[in-house]
Amino acid sequence: MGFFDTVARLEREQDANLARVESIRNEIVVTKSKRDASADFDEAATLDDQIVTLERRLKLAEGVADGSAGRLQIARSKAQEKAADAEHAAAEKQAADTKPERAALIAIEKAIAAIMIVAERNRATEAANSIRGQRAVIVDGETRLRQTPGRTIPAEWRDEIVWSDSAGNRPSVFREVNGEMVPVEQGFTRRTERVCVQPERVIPPTMPDRLAELLPALRKALE
User: Fold this and answer.
1) Are β-strands 174-177 and 180-183 bridged in parallel, bridged antiparallel, or unpaired?
2) Are residues 196 and 210 both part of a single domain?
3) Residues 173 and 76: beta-carbon distance below 8 Å
4) Within this chain, do residues 37 and 90 fall inside the same structural domain, yes or no?
5) Whole-angstrom distance, CA of residue 122 vs CA of residue 114
């Protein structure tokens, strides 16, 4: 039987012992209540004897519960220690297996070689662009693959009600008529004007750091 099986058994045993203690305590309370309420001497004496017996049984039950609690604590400690031993052994076994680390180093070596090729291709593209003359600009492969395209966010507009006279003056005092605010003064004309709430925004393309910038750190990892 394993430690965890033992712990489960002792937990059930402790639950039963504690339930017994609680049951006897309740029985003592009920019996004392009956004794104190009895008007018959013989009945009261009998109940008093029962209380003495119950209190003796309670003391015994509490002792049994204390003993089982101690055994349960010891069993739990042993089970925890056994689990810790197993976790430590598993961690030790994992640490002894260096296959993932070897694979990571090989992957770094391959990454360095690949990035060096990318860097050389970028230099070749840059050289070609420097002498392109009127020819189109060449976008290197890394940029084509990794650059986030730019975008344009359209302007936001809304319609507003505007009152103005022939000279373009606007009223300053309004009153409500049929749920609408209209000028108090005469001579103003109502019209709808389109107002720009948010101008058009141009988000330029973004490019993360070049892969070649990773080379120093990758080479250092192989030292």
Assistant:
1) antiparallel
2) no
3) no
4) yes
5) 13
How far is Cα 87 from Cα 69, in angstroms, rounded to an integer? 27
Does one domain contain both 92 and 42? yes
User: 41 by DSSP, 3-state: which?
Assistant: helix
Residue 17 tokens read as 């012992």
Same domain for 37 and 59, yes or no, is yes
Same domain flag for 47 and 137: no
Each residue's pLDDT tens digit, 64-82: 999 999 999 999 999 999 9
**CB-based contacts of 149, cutoff 8 Å, min separation 6:** 205
CA 154 to chain centre: 36
- Which two structure tokens, joined as six digits, stand for 138? 């060449």
Boundaries of domain holding 196: 151-202
Total domains present in the chain: 3
Residue 1: predicted pLDDT: 45
Residues 112-135 have pLDDT tens digits of 999 999 999 999 999 999 999 999
CATH number at residue 12: 1.10.287
168 backbone φψ class: left, alpha, beta (φ>0; ψ -120 to 50)? left
